[in-house]
Amino acid sequence: MSQSAVISRVGPKEPTETRWDPTKIPPFPAIALKALNMLGGKDTSLLNLCDLIRSDPAVSIAVLQIANSPLIAFPKSVTSVLQASMLLGFRRLRSIVITVGLKSYLANSFTPLMTACWRHSVATAIIAERSATWSFLDTDFAYTAGILHDIGRVALATVMPSSYGRVVERGADHAHEILVIEQELCGIDHCQAGRALIGTWGLPEALIEIAACHHDATETETGTAALIAPSCALADCLGFHVVPYRCNRGYAEVLEDFPKAARKHFPADAQEFVSEIATEIRVIESA
């Protein structure tokens, strides 16, 4: 099905929200899109990213606040973006810019629903990044994919908040039917919406596939991409959910979905992990 066909599908919805219209969605911050399209691993890439950050005062301030936070815990104060870039390195700095970009994207609509979307995305990114580190996989891609995997849900909640509020209400008792409920109430599900948006933004195909398929991951997925579905599920399990699923799967059971190399590194106590993730989210939110 073509992208234009997907975004124009119409289902039964409230009269005031009669159509999924991507033109109503605010553009993703240009600085974050540029960072997403940057390739890492070279000194020139780090300098280019540094220059990009310095071109935006708001992003510069946010990066400096995070660099000076307990989350990073440098022994000395970081006083410039150039210093932050040298200390953080390309991959960590790029992740911060993308996260700040998502925060900025949601800044004008931080309703309880949007707050839940934000915290779920960041929690998924944190979990995916850690599990990638423990599995010797691509941490940069894991974090980025985690941040963007639910961007379609953010879009639906932006364009038709009333309809998506009803999705959340009904979805709590029908976790495995969430995409069907979205189709019924919004005319499109968040995986289709994510595919359309990320494709429109010109981002890599691997990120498009994550947004489109993170609810139907199979055992054929390998590498870093295979971490996103369990990271999303674990974020839900730990309470960082958008739809408050009434799920019978506990923390230990969800951990079984991760690679064996990563499982032994997760905190034994779920609440300990919740506290760690919540602390990191609070630092980012305060920047």
Element layout with pairings:
Elements: H1 3-7, H2 30-36, H3 43-54, H4 57-67, H5 81-106, H6 112-134, H7 139-148, H8 151-159, H9 161-171, H10 178-186, H11 190-200, H12 205-213, H13 228-237, H14 251-255, H15 260-263, H16 270-286
Helix pairs in contact: 2-5, 3-5, 4-5, 5-6, 5-7, 6-7, 6-8, 6-13, 8-9, 8-11, 9-10, 11-12
Describe this structure in words.
- The protein is mostly helical and 287 residues long.
- It has one domain: Hypothetical protein af1432 (Orthogonal Bundle), CATH 1.10.3210.
- Helices cover 62% and strands 0% of the residues.
- Helix 5 runs parallel beside helix 7.
- It is globular and about 50 Å long.
Could you give a short description of this structure?
By secondary structure, the chain is mostly helical. It has helices spanning 3-7, 30-36, 43-54, 57-67, 81-106, 112-134, 139-148, 151-159, 161-171, 178-186, 190-200, 205-213, 228-237, 251-255, 260-263, 270-286.
CATH superfamily: Hypothetical protein af1432
CATH-defined fold name: Hypothetical protein af1432
Structural shape: globular
Total domains:
1
Tell me, rounded to a whole number, the average pLDDT. 86
How much of the sequence is in beta strands?
A: under 5%
Number of helices: 16
**What is the CATH first-level class name?**
Mainly Alpha
| Helical residue percent band | 55-70%
Q: What keywords describe this structure?
A:
Hypothetical protein af1432; disordered N terminus; mainly alpha; 287 residues; 16 helices
